[in-house]
Structure formats: structure tokens, C-alpha cells
Design brief:
This protein has about 550 residues and is an alpha/beta fold. The protein has three domains: about 170 residues, 3-Layer(aba) Sandwich (Rossmann fold); about 160 residues, Rossmann fold, CATH 3.40.50.1220; about 200 residues, Thiamin diphosphate (ThDP)-binding fold, Pyr/PP domains (Rossmann fold, 3-Layer(aba) Sandwich), CATH 3.40.50.970. Helices cover about 35% and strands about 15% of the residues. The chain is built from 21 helices and 20 strands. The strands form four sheets. A six-stranded parallel β-sheet has the order 3-2-4-5-7-6, with helices on both faces. A six-stranded parallel β-sheet has the order 11-10-9-12-13-14, sandwiched between helices. Strand 15, helix 14 and strand 16 form a beta-alpha-beta unit. Helix 1 crosses helix 2. The termini are far apart.
């Protein structure tokens, strides 16, 4: 006989869980008690949204479900921001929520929410466990659903009395991963289309990648001399300095690359859904009927043909598909070799930052310095905002699992993700980029970094505004500023108050020594970069956007 709390933890151990992010609550004290007797690393966070984002980052970097535990009501609704990220980004995550006791349900008891009604839109499966004897069944199913097909978040609600009740239950066993191998006829059809192409392009995206599949894709691209691109915030899937790399397909795409995709005669979507942001509002590939021949490789049949009708649909994960194409090679001279080289050259030009700009701090030289001084395996994290352009356009990702950023455009993600990444990879440098608005969405998790002695380096790009919204505002309603100005703390002093290291950069040349001091401190660090709000994009100022809108 074991309590429901013990059975939950036993199932986690059986499924290889190594860490849990949580904010404690009285509704699941029995689970916290059971965790006391295990080696599972419990990371205590300061807000449930941050905890869920940490679990998302673990799922993102490992491919295993990230685990988050929160209390009912406000704890659960706080965590919903992380659920939405995991849903849109296809990240495996399991959120355990304490729930009111069974005899109080449907009375709007203290902090009661019916999670099946509340969270179905942002989770693959939402369930409540009514019987402690069925806990192994529900947890095993949660792992299977979170990782199969298109990965995503699962929610399990745990009534408080179920967790304290004892029951006999079967011994928990690990879930069985589901593979999806393409058939020989599909591989032959793919090869046939590739052989006929004159202007192919490959767009990598999505999840369910690993080191082996990334390396296999590189080798395949080399054999066929294919131009390879990466979807929005999936840039670590291909080495940016490899001669086959043609750029990222995201917000503010290189216009030359956009033309190449529109004019391609074969587009291979591998691993991703190609949703609104990477598709430039569904304009790079027409929906529902693309002009280009489309091969779409995706691990979930419900996504194939949902937005784009493919000429060839292959239901397979990236790893399974790349394993199946590993032996095929071209049997004729390839007509696109010069085009691939030209596309790479265009990317190098596009990803070279400007040296100057408005104000005393110029982000271009800062990014150039980071390119020279950050290790190839350094992990970059960020949330959302115009500041992120400096990372996504000008940082050249070289290796797999060096990027953690939300395709859902959720602010506040970067710092919790950095905490999780450093906890997962203590031997690697972790650099978080955040705007001043973005940082304060989950800035309190800096205290978590201090508590666990995680020496992340956070670069807060402070321009005193909600920059992306101000940019849109000046374009649509020029000169009519409303609700986009910010009043900020001294971020360097804030870092010191938390027990970390703080630096303030007011001149470009101050950044390099500030970064080195932050690195040498061995503490979690914040480097506040005071950027002129006019430097809203790498190529246009706020005033230029305003004037062009008036014209």
C-alpha cells in the first residue's frame, strides 16, 4: 500500500525523471514529501510561469518531458503561460497541478478550477486522477502523449485526498517511445522529386531532433549540395558557417532568401509546421495549395495537409526520416551548386551587423565581440522583443542545443530558460538576452539562479520602452505614443541586491570588460545595456519609421 503522492513519485522515477521545477503548495504536500526520499533534483522557483518555462526548456534541450508542479487556482493559471509556449513550440512537458479534494468539487471551492475546461486549448491532454490505484496508468499515458507525434504539454490534476489516500497499484513502468519510420516507397518518391528539381530549398524546424539527426542532415546536405535554412528560433539545427547554410526563415527574413523560397520549384519542410511567423504570414508558401512542389515531413499525421497540401506527405520524425535517407546519393550533376553558394554568401552579408547607429551604445560591435568570445557550445536564451533581432539575425549558431527561445513570442522566457539550461549543463556558458520589458516579466527567477549558484549572464537591453509595440505604434499611429513607455529599476543594482553581479554599459566599449568581469565573478550576473530607443531595429530608427508612416 502506497499513498497517491508516493505513487506519483514512483512513476516519475520509473520514467527516468531527473529534475522537477516547482512552486510549492499545500494541495500537493504528499508529493513534496515523497520527493524527499528520491534523488530527483527539485528546483524551487519564485513564480509558476517561470517554473513552467524552466520545464519547457528542459524538454526543449533534452527531448524528454520537462516536469513542473504547481498548486491549484492561481498557481495553475500562472503556469499557463509556460503551457502555451510548450504547445505552440511542440515541446514535451507534464504539468502536475494540486486540486481540491474530491468531495468539494463543483462547489467553487477554495482555488478550484475545472482544468479540463480551462486548459484543453493549450495542452494535448488534460486529465484528473480520481483513483490513486490508477496513478501509474495516468502518468505512463502522460509521458506517451507528451512525446509522441507532435510533442506537447500534458496536464494532470491531482485531488489532494487522492494524494494522501493509500492504495495498491501496479508497479510503474517506463513509457514506450513511438517511432514513425517512412516507407521505402516514400523515400523513393522523395528521391525522384529531388532528382527532378532545379531550385530546391530545405527548411528545418520543429522538435524531435538529436545530435545524430543534425549530423545526418549535414551529411545529406553536403552530398546533394542543398541550400538549407532553419525555421524561426530553430537556428541551432544547422551550422551557420557551413557553406550549405542559407539563413533563417523567421521574422524579418532576408528579402533575398524570401525570394528564393517563393521561386523554388521544390520545398522540403522537415520537422516543422511552418506556421505564421516563419511563413511571413503564410506568404512564402501559399495555403492551402503551394505553388512549389512541397514535401512535408512531420511526425503527426493530423498536421500533414492541415495548412498546406503537400505533394508528398511523410509521417516521420526528423530523426527517423534522416535515418532513412542516409544512403541515397545523387546520380547526376546537380544544377544548383552555384545557387547554394550564392545563398550562403547572401546569408553572410545579411548576418553581418552594422558598426554604428544612434546613441552611445551600438549593438553591432557588441554582437561581433560576442561572436569572437562566446564558446561554440554556449547556450543563448531569450524571450520576445525587438532586442531579440540582434541574437537571431547576427549570432551565428554552430551547434545543436545552443538555442532556447519561444516560437510563440512569449515575453519573460529567457531568464527562466537560462536557469534551466545552466542547471542542465553546468559546464557550458549560458547567455540570456532580455529587453527591459521582457526581463521584468520573470526577473524574480534571478533569485532562483542565485540560490542554486548558477552563473548565467543576462544581457538586459534597456531602451525604456516596450520596443516592438512602440515600433508598430509609430508605424500605424505615428506620433501618438500611448502605453509603451517604461520606468525601470537600476538593473545592475538589482542583480547585486539579489546576491549576484551587476554591470551597467553606457558606451559600446564598456561592454567587453563588463562581460569579462561578469564571467569572472562566478555569480549570476546582469549586464544592463542602455540602448537609445531610436535604435529600434538594426536598419531603421523610430524617427524613420514615424516619418515614413506619415508620408
Amino acid at each position: 500500500m502506497k499513498t497517491g503522492g508516493q505513487l506519483i513519485v514512483e512513476a516519475l522515477v520509473a520514467n527516468g525523471v531527473r529534475r522537477v521545477a516547482c512552486v510549492p503548495g499545500e494541495s500537493y504536500l504528499a508529493v513534496l514529501d515523497a520527493l524527499h526520499d528520491t534523488d530527483i533534483d527539485v528546483l524551487v522557483c519564485r513564480q509558476e510561469g517561470g517554473a513552467a518555462m524552466m520545464a519547457d526548456c528542459w524538454g526543449r534541450l533534452t527531448g524528454e518531458p520537462g516536469i513542473c508542479m504547481v498548486t491549484r487556482g492561481p498557481g495553475a493559471t500562472n503556469a499557463s503561460a509556460g503551457l502555451h509556449i510548450a504547445r505552440q513550440d511542440s515541446i514535451p512537458l507534464i504539468l502536475f497541478i494540486g486540486q481540491v479534494q474530491r468531495d468539494a468539487r463543483e462547489r467553487e471551492a477554495f482555488q478550484e478550477i475545472e482544468y479540463r475546461r480551462a486548459f484543453t486549448e493549450v495542452a494535448k491532454w488534460v486529465a484528473e486522477i480520481d483513483d490513486p490505484a490508477r496513478i501509474p496508468e495516468f502518468v505512463t499515458r502522460a509521458f506517451a502523449i507528451a512525446t509522441s507525434g507532435r510533442p506537447g504539454p500534458v496536464v494532470l490534476a491531482l485531488p489532494e485526498d487522492v494524494l494522501t489516500q493509500s492504495a495498491e497499484a501496479p508497479r510503474a513502468l517506463p513509457f514506450t517511445p513511438v517511432a514513425s519510420h517512412p516507407g521505402p516507397s516514400q523515400i523513393a518518391a522523395f528521391r525522384e522529386r529531388l532528382e527532378r528539381a532545379q531550385r530546391p530549398v530545405v527548411i528545418l524546424g520543429g522538435t524531435r531532433w538529436d545530435e545524430e539527426s543534425v549530423e545526418g542532415m549535414r551529411a545529406f546536405a553536403e552530398r546533394w549540395d542543398l541550400p538549407v535554412t532553419c525555421s524561426f528560433r530553430r537556428q541551432m539545427l544547422f551550422d551557420h558557417l557551413h557553406p550549405n547554410y542559407a539563413g533563417d526563415v523567421g521574422i524579418g527574413i532576408n528579402p533575398a532568401l524570401g525570394r528564393e523560397i517563393r521561386e523554388a520549384d521544390l520545398v522540403v519542410l522537415l520537422g516543422g509546421r511552418f506556421s505564421e511567423m516563419p511563413s511571413s504570414g503564410y506568404t512564402l508558401i501559399d495555403s492551402p495549395y503551394p505553388k512549389q512542389t512541397l514535401v512535408h515531413v512531420y511526425p503527426d499525421p493530423s498536421e500533414l495537409g492541415r495548412v498546406y497540401r503537400p505533394d508528398l506527405a511523410i509521417c516521420a520524425s526528423p530523426a527517423d526520416f534522416i535515418g532513412a535517407i542516409g544512403d541515397i546519393s545523387p546520380e547526376r550533376p546537380l544544377p544548383w551548386k552555384d545557387r547554394t553558394a550564392a545563398m550562403h554568401a547572401a546569408y553572410l552579408g545579411w548576418s553581418t551587423p552594422p558598426e554604428t547607429g544612434p546613441g552611445a551604445v551600438h549593438m553591432g560591435p557588441i554582437m561581433n565581440w560576442l561572436e569572437r568570445n562566446a564558446a561554440p557550445d554556449a547556450i543563448f536564451t531569450n524571450g520576445a522583443g525587438n532586442y531579440a533581432t540582434w541574437v537571431h539575425r547576427f549570432h551565428r549558431f554552430r551547434r545543436f542545443n545552443t538555442q532556447a527561445a519561444p516560437t510563440s513570442g512569449s515575453m519573460g522566457y529567457g531568464l527562466p530558460a537560462a536557469v534551466a539550461a545552466k542547471r542542465l549543463h553546468p559546464d557550458r556558458e549560458v547567455i540570456c538576452f532580455a529587453g527591459d520589458g521582457c526581463f521584468l516579466m520573470h526577473g524574480q527567477e534571478f533569485a532562483t539562479a542565485v540560490r542554486y549558484a548558477l552563473p548565467i549572464i543576462t544581457v538586459v537591453v534597456n531602451n525604456g520602452i516596450y520596443g516592438t509595440i512602440r515600433m508598430h505604434q509609430e508605424r500605424e499611429y505615428p506620433g501618438r505614443v500611448s502605453a509603451t513607455d517604461l520606468t525601470n529599476p537600476d538593473f545592475a543594482a538589482l542583480a547585486i541586491a539579489y546576491g549576484g553581479h551587476g554591470e551597467t554599459v553606457t558606451q559600446t566599449e564598456e561592454f567587453a570588460p563588463a562581460f569579462l568581469r561578469a564571467r569572472e565573478s562566478g555569480k549570476p550576473a546582469i549586464i544592463e545595456v542602455k540602448l537609445d530607443p531610436e535604435a529600434i531595429t538594426p536598419s531603421r530608427t523610430l524617427s524613420e519609421i514615424r516619418q515614413s508612416s506619415k508620408g
